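queue> pop job 88
queue> type: inverse folding (structure -> sequence)
queue> payload:
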């Protein structure tokens, strides 16, 4: 087949154009060459078998409230200042260790809340959070 001017335009083309087919095959070949090594880069490891059981005991929550006058309440029970550290140490000794939620009145002095935080830290409590009301 010549690339010149054909004098008879009514002739049917008898040859298949192979160039697009070859292009598609080369693209597929490149894709397979790239993806096959990625799929084979796995390390065969024989992992040990272990039983996985959910934690049955949920840690409780200790609510430490500080009212407007600076009084301490643990789980809505009023306690004296001297009782705060021993009660927090008893909570820290529990297994699993409970969460401590501190609720401070907005009118209380920051010093009272800071003392409660320091007592909780010295007692060994690791999970301490503050509870606030959402702003309307």
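queue> result:
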């Amino acid at each position: 087949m010549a690339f010149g001017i054909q004098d008879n335009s009514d002739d049917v083309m008898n040859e298949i154009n192979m160039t697009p087919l070859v292009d598609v095959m080369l693209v597929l070949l490149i894709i397979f060459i790239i993806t096959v090594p990625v799929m084979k880069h796995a390390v065969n490891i024989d992992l040990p078998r272990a039983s996985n059981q959910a934690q049955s005991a949920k840690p409780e929550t200790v609510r430490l409230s500080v009212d407007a006058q600076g009084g301490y309440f643990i789980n809505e029970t009023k306690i004296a200042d001297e009782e705060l550290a021993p009660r927090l140490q008893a909570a820290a000794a529990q297994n699993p260790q409970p969460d401590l939620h501190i609720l401070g009145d907005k009118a209380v002095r920051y010093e009272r809340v800071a003392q409660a935080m320091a007592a909780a830290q010295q007692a060994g409590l690791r999970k301490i959070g503050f509870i606030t009301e959402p702003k309307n």
